[in-house]
Amino acid sequence: MNTPVPATSVHGYPHIGPRRELKRAVEGYWAGRTTAAELDAAAAALRRDAVAAMAAAGIAAVPSNTFTYYDQMLDTALLFGAVPERFRAAAAAASDRAGELDAYFAMARGSDAAPPLEMTKWFDTNYHYLVPEIGPATPLRLSGAKPVEEFEEARAQGVETRPVLIGPLTFLLLSKPDASAPEGFAPLDRLDELLPCYGELLERLHRAGAAAVRLDEPALAADRTPEELAALRRAYRYLGEREARPAITVSTYFGAIGAALPVLAAAPVEGVGLDFVAGPANRDALAAAGGLGGKVLEAGLVDGRNVWRTDLGGALAMAASLLGLAGGLTVSTSCSLQHVPLDLAAETGLDPRLRERLAFARQKLDELALIALGLAEGTEALGDRLAAGRPAGGAFTDHQVRARLDALGAGRPRADYAVRVRAQRQGGAGALPPLATTTIGSFPQTAEVRAARAGLRAGRLPREEYERLMRAEIDRVIALQEDIGLDVLVHGEPERNDMVQYFAEQLAGYAATEHGWVQSYGSRYVRPPILFGDVSRPAPMTVEWARYAQSRTAKPVKGMLTGPVTMLAWSFVRDDQPLAETARQVALALRDEVRDLEAAGIRHIQVDEPALRELLPLRRDEQPAYLAWAAEAFRLATSGVADTTTVHTHMCYSEFGEVIGAIGELDADVTSVEAARSRMELVADLRDVGYRREIGPGVYDIHSPRVPSEEEIEAALRRALAAVEPDRLWVNPDCGLKTRGYAEVEPALRNLVSAARRVRESLGS
Ligand SMILES: Nc1nc2c(c(=O)[nH]1)N[C@@H](CNc1ccc(C(=O)N[C@@H](CCC(=O)N[C@@H](CCC(=O)N[C@@H](CCC(=O)O)C(=O)O)C(=O)O)C(=O)O)cc1)CN2
Ligand code: MET
Ligand SMILES: [Zn+2]
């Protein structure tokens, strides 16, 4: 065959550096240790390395403008001048680079004067973006040059990049109306004013010499109304028909785009990007639509969100079947590689049988080149690389786990809540006041705690010494909670590096990485563990810590576990069996842990499911089946306890809309949820969907360093009491406290307890 080698492209590449250099630089700047110039220099070096890596791997369309100090949605809002009213004065007053950066970070993190932008999940990933606020009067004008500057910066390095922008439809659909917006207003109403800003930017990029740009419209992977599709048509007609512009590729990812496909196929643009990993249905839809005509199809064939090596044979077959459906084919990632770790070469401790099946961002660049080569020269050109890397089925099977699950089925359900609550509240140790106070689990992870763990890892600190330090930390956290007067205490989770990784490190079938960091939000990172085989629990995981904490107090201590859905959502999970099946294995391991905690005298057990919303399919018709298996896995994990044991769960990251009905299906006795930012409206929403158990709406936002006043917590509680009886209301922050410092946490919790007392007193109890 003599076809030219197809081009390759990447949606985005990790910019955090092999050792999280970006985190160090940004947090150093916040702490006043790093100057603005040093921060900018560190960032430029990281961009240079990423561009160089992609260019060296032969990627044709190297992306630029994918770097961010905090979040790309925030960057886009600033690019178009869409600064919320409360930040405008500070932004306008910025007179130097430091002032500019401070105004930027204030929007992300809040300031004394103004709360930050809301943060929420980026589609169904564990990345969080900042939600732009757009009202009828929000300014919209091209106000920055970041895409042009990053293009020119890479050109100076000798690489012609393709600037990437979040597309206008996705930008507006992911924004929320600002406080001034009248009922019925939607940010999308401002589309016609925003488009000229994009047009002007395209013209500037064109003048700077950019031959092509990519506009990302991941919002098309979710259900879209006819009006939204009409807006899509209008947007790309407007941009496509402008004269001075680079070639435009409209890229979509995270799933099949359904009815949007014919709209993009007909748009006056040069390329369309489709994800064939999360959206294999895109293939048939493309054929049914008659293909893309002369446009280039940018085919997402290499999974940007998981760590398994690409099945090159399968990718080549898919690519071959696409060749006739477009004017040209570019071999691409399915989405940005920001969701996977940078380089497998940094991992030295992995089982070789697992390692040979993995590809991180750096390795995926080579896979793209191989697929392009195979397309041009035939599969023979790939030799034995074609066969390498696919799971050797059955290598990690555990027949005992499978047999236990078969025997257990759905497990016996618990007694009705009405029966349980009587058993739980019967005097003695079970007695709790109305508006019982508690926290969500973690207390601040102090520098000493993290340093101790780093010492343990490096072999500097013996395990016994580490455990002694953790017990001392638990003593401190218990004593503090008693002093503050909380009702249900926690041990504070000092021994956990992360609420998912900690368990993964102790479960069979799971592997942890040493350096596999992925950005979760801002300067916060996680190392998602790799779930590669059947899961089981070789030994109890949390029981000794919980038992120890309970031995230090007469008050009840709440045991703390991470639920099955969250264990999957925040890991890289095997893709050779349905998630529902894997969830049942994790649930079984947790079920054993829950029962062991109970046997150790722990009367309250919390099983966190903060990611319940995150794994919800983007398409409505797929959601009920997901919610059914998710709730079943939770019940399997928690239904093995006596009526007298109180099962708690916790969820965060707002937008409960679609999952609100499922909260009751989990059958927990108490559910704590993030509600501070939505002013307790969730409590009434839960009542309206028939939720009749106990509820702990978060009364303050732990993502901000602000200390809430007693009055504001009291007001929140009174709003909640409009929709729930006092003995069903719990009082707690809206999430764990691990990212905060004691200087904020202690006064905040004191205010929380005194607010709860004041309300109790006013109720005469
Ligand atoms: N997996 C996961 N996803 C989640 C959440 C979560 O808690 N876990 N919460 C939500 C919000 N996301 C979050 C994500 C990360 C963090 C977070 O605090 N991350 C820490 C790292 C946590 C960790 O893994 N800590 C390790 C490693 C700590 C570390 O950096 N050690 C240094 C040395 C430390 C020292 O000497 O001080 C090193 O190894 O170089 C530990 O404690 O053992 C961070 O970025 O700083 C918080 C919230 C949604 N998604
Ligand atoms: C992201 S949800 C966090 C729940 C966990 N128990 C904590 O308090 O940190
Ligand atoms: Zn939480």
Fold and architecture overview:
Residues 8-322 form the Cobalamin-independent methionine synthase MetE N-terminal domain. Catalyzes the transfer of a methyl group from 5-methyltetrahydrofolate to homocysteine resulting in methionine formation. Pathway: Amino-acid biosynthesis; L-methionine biosynthesis via de novo pathway; L-methionine from L-homocysteine (MetE route): step 1/1. The protein has a domain at 7-386: TIM Barrel (Alpha-Beta Barrel). The model has no long low-confidence stretch (mean pLDDT 95). The chain is an alpha/beta fold and 765 residues long. The strands form seven sheets. It has an eight-stranded parallel sheet. Helix 4 packs antiparallel against helix 5, helix 8 packs parallel to helix 9 and helix 17 runs antiparallel to helix 18. It is 41% helix and 13% strand. The protein has 27 helices and 24 strands. Ligand 39S binds next to helix 17, strand 15 and strand 16.
